[in-house]
Amino acid sequence: MREIALGSTRPAGLYSPEQRARRDATIWTPVQAVLAPLQFLAFAVSLVLVVHYLATGTGYGAATASIIVKTGFLCAIMVTGAIWEKAVFGQYLFAPAFFWEDVFSFLVISLHALYLWALLSGGMTPQGQMVVALAAYAAYAINATQFVLKLRQARLQGAAA
Fold first, then answer.
1. Is 82 inside a domain boundary?
2. pLDDT digit string (tens) for 121-161?
3. What is the DSSP letter of 97?
4. What's the structural domain count of the chain?
């Protein structure tokens, strides 16, 4: 809660007016708006390929390539998202408005990194690799939901302003 003009309190909201202006002015906002649906599309295609491989034992190469593409989008959105957060909130990660989303993003990236380690090291069977990918995708789905809810919150805050 924060103080406003006549001593009453209200929730601070997702963005202050200055942060909203910085959000609207930075090139990183449209970059995120493009990367997020592309990453979701890569996720959806890859999920189908991974499940197909686990169900049939065929298509390992396609599933693997799709996970690598999805991981590339994840890395791109993580880096550009940190730059966006710096532009809007003045810090690269863990700004109060996105703290828990950032925390969970580290779980998502850790699971994707575990998949890449398993793939490159041969430390897991192909089936084990795909199970790790599914765990990464479950975490990604939760994290994507967090961000969609924040987007909705921002829209509602903007409409009320």
1. yes
2. 999 999 999 999 999 999 999 999 999 999 888 888 877 76
3. G
4. 1
Give the chain's largest Cα–Cα span: 67
Q: From its phi and psi, is residue 11 left (phi > 0), alpha (psi between -120 and 50) or beta?
A: beta
141 lies in which domain range?
A: 16-160
This prediction's pTM: 0.86
11, part of any domain: no
How buried is 70 (Cβ within 10 angstroms: 0-12 exposed, 13-18 middle, 19+ buried)? buried
In a domain, 152, yes or no: yes
- Look at strands 2-3 and 9-10 and give their pairing: antiparallel
16-39 pLDDT tens trace? 999 999 999 999 999 999 999 999
What are the residues whose beta carbons fall under 8 Å from the beta carbon of 69, sequence distance 6 or more? 42, 46
